[in-house]
Design a protein that fits this description.
about 500 residues, Rossmann fold, six-stranded mixed beta sheet, 18 helices, globular
Length: about 500
């Protein structure tokens, strides 16, 4: 198969970091190649080189046999390469058609031919099976629909290569199935796909080949016949992993947290739960089940209409996150970028924010004490940073999650709520997060884990609560007889 796109010996340095070390990559039209690796392996940097966001320090890129140089994103797009990032590049107040043709609008003397633009947008959207009104504003679209508009925007510009960065991260199970069909359809139309995902089941289903990176270097390639989960993991982490989840038995103690009849409108309808010392309680269910809403009530991020919360037998008056933190309850939010971190602050400052009372006196922050404490967590949790002043926005997803974990570990909270703790995180970092959850449980903490990943629910929890549209559909003690099928039946109300 002729290679339409080739990258040879791509090198890239940042201050203190050798991000890409002579990386090779190839892609043919009509082919789907998975780009895999742990957080910090260099995948994002390689994508940004390919998309013209980073200029490589060395190496050669060829497109259709011609050597090219991408100094800016429009250079890459001009050669038929479109990057669909996890954070979409759409203008919310503009329509789908306006976003798709932004900058290349059909016009007569600067007057846009809106009818022609809408018709052409509709044709492109129909080509990819999208039932979207081209005149609807993008702020009114679902995540899956916005993704389709991004793909449509690329096809309007005659893109022949699509790079899809974690395309399923925020999709429902049904939308993921639609994504699978879309990728196959795009391949059949002769479009090459670079597919970046931490969900290995997607890779096994979609990819024709998988290129694996580690520590900035390409460490191997697996053909379609070798796309085995264990082989992929071994290449990614550089060692054999006998299991994806720690095999540890926990001792369950007395009840620590008890919530009764929590209510918030139609989103949480009288949910009661309890968590014991040393226990990991999983909350699961489909999108809109009320899992995150329940966690926000426990953390005081939302006001509850009714219900009580007790910790160690004492009723808590929680009306804000500050009061929850003071009481000993902490939340690792589902969206770490928007709600868990201040991205334009340094990693040390993010660590220090909820802990300033421990690092300050008379209004003055003891920076030495703050740095010393943060350094201990950098070592313990294995946070990969170039220095304490590195911006949180510059970290990989896994390392961002570790910074969030570090600030709550410093709080020494009694109840920790992990909302989608491993979303967008590679298998190696996942295992480390799981180990920390177990360690905290062993210390007598109570752990609530919210997850839509059923293998994670089964692999980590002691007890499982299944929610649907704000109601509790069932509660079950985890064990060998509990299966994904059984949990899914409960989630859709067939139990």
């Amino acid at each position: 198969m002729d290679r339409f796109l080739t990258l040879r010996s791509i090198d890239k340095h940042f201050p203190g970091v050798h991000a890409l070390k002579g990386v090779d990559f190839e892609l043919s039209l009509g082919e789907c190649v998975a780009l895999l690796g742990e957080n910090g392996a260099g995948k994002s940097t390689l994508i940004k080189v390919l998309g013209g966001a980073h200029l490589p320090d060395g190496g050669v890129i060829t497109v259709n046999g011609k050597e090219v140089s991408f100094e800016k994103p429009t250079d890459s797009l001009a050669e038929g390469i479109a990057i669909i990032y996890q954070e979409f590049n759409l203008v919310p107040s503009l329509s789908a058609a306006e976003n798709m043709f932004l900058g290349i609008e059909p016009n007569d003397y600067c007057v846009v031919r809106e009818s022609e633009q809408a018709n052409r947008a509709k044709q492109i959207l129909e080509r990819i099976g999208a039932k979207i009104d081209p005149n609807v504003r993008c702020e009114d679209l679902t995540v899956a629909e916005k993704q389709l508009v991004e793909i449509g925007k690329a096809l309007v510009r005659d893109a022949q290569i699509l790079v899809m960065d974690e395309p399923s991260a925020a999709l429902t199970n049904q939308e993921v199935d639609q994504l699978y069909k879309l990728v196959e359809d795009l391949k059949s139309q002769g479009i090459g796909i670079v597919y970046v995902s931490h969900r290995l089941e997607e890779v096994e289903r979609l990819a024709d080949r998988a290129v694996v990176m580690r520590d900035g270097a390409r460490v191997g390639e697996l053909g379609r016949q070798d796309l085995d989960r264990s082989k992929i993991i071994e290449l990614m982490v550089g060692r054999s992993m006998a299991a994806e989840f720690p095999d540890e038995r926990r001792t369950i103690g007395d009840v620590r947290l008890r919530a009764k009849n929590l209510v918030r409108g139609e989103r949480v309808k009288g949910i009661s739960l309890q968590v014991s010392a040393g226990e990991i309680l999983a909350l699961t269910g489909l999108v809109g089940a009320g899992r995150t809403e329940t966690a926000r009530l426990l953390f005081g991020a939302d006001n509850r209409d009714a219900g009580t919360i007790e910790l160690d037998g004492k009723e808590l008056r929680i009306a804000s996150p500050i009061e929850a933190i003071q009481a000993g309850i902490c939340l690792l939010t589902e969206d770490r970028k928007d709600q868990g971190l201040v991205l334009e602050l340094s990693v040390k400052e993010n660590f220090g924010l909820p802990n300033l009372k421990d690092f300050s006196r008379y209004g003055w922050v003891n920076r030495k004490k703050e740095s010393s404490s943060f350094a201990s967590y950098v070592d313990k949790i294995k946070i990969k940073i170039s220095g304490h002043n590195q911006l949180a926005s510059q970290l990989s997803g896994g390392n961002q999650q570790k910074v969030v974990l570090a600030k709550w570990l410093e709080q020494n909270a009694e109840i920790l709520i992990f909302d989608e703790p491993t979303r967008g995180i590679d298998v190696g970092a996942k295992f480390e997060i799981y180990q920390w959850m177990n360690r905290l449980a062993e210390q007598g903490k109570g752990i609530i884990m919210i997850s839509s990943e059923l293998p994670e629910v089964l692999g980590m929890s002691d007890r499982i609560m299944v929610l649907k549209e704000g109601d509790l559909m069932g509660e079950i003690k985890n064990g060998p007889d509990v299966t994904q099928k059984k949990l899914m039946a409960m989630a859709i109300g067939e139990n």
